[in-house]
Design brief:
The chain is mainly beta. Helices cover about 0% and strands about 45% of the residues. The chain contains no helices and 18 strands.
Length: about 220
Amino acid sequence: MRPVTVSVGPLTASSTNNIATAQSLGAAGALTLNGSLASGGVATIANPQRIGIKSVGDDSARTWTVTGTNWSGSTISETFKGATAGNTVNSALSYATVTSIALDGASAGNVTVGTTGLGSSPWVRFDNWAHPTLAIQCVVTGTATYTFESSFDDPNDLVNAVAPASMAWDSTISPLVGASASAEATVDAAPLWGRISINSGTGSVRAVFIQYLNVAS
C-alpha cells in the first residue's frame, strides 16, 4: 500500500448554538438551522466535526435524525436518542455540512445545536492482501490532543455490513492515545479502517499510514 495521508483540524470552536439557536418543536419535525454557521437552511462547518444537540427538557425518549455531508461531499445520516434534561448528545459522525436535524415527536422544551470541538479525519481503508504490519506517523501543528482509532467493522461488507454511525472504534495503540505531540507507532496487524480523532485543541494533525510489503499477485 502506498503511503496514505489524511488530516483533521483545525476545528471550529465548540458552541451550543452555532448551528441552531434555541427553539422547541410542538410535534415531529425539523429544527430551523439558523445559527451563525447556517445560511439558506444549511450549516457549513469549515473542517468536519461532530455536532451536539442540547436539550432543556428530557428528550431521551425521542429520536433525532441528522443529515448532511462528509469530507468528500457524500451524503451521510444517522439517528440517535435525545439527551436528558440539561445535557447534550453528540453525533457519531463528523459533518462538513448539516442539512437537516429532525425529531420524531415534540421536544420537552428548547433545544440548541452546535459544534463540539471534536472531529475525525477521513477514514483510511487498509489492504487485506498486503503484509499486516502498519506504520503510522502523526504530525501536530499548533495545539491538539488526538487519538488513532481503528475498526474491524465494515459498512461495505456484503453479509454483515455495519452502519457508519454504529461502527465500533478501538483506541489503544500507544503512544497515539490522547497524544499532544507528534509521534509514530507500529501496528502488528492492520485493522480494516483507521482514522485520527482530535479530542481538544485548536491545532491540526496530519497522519501518514504505510502498510509494508504488498503481496505479489
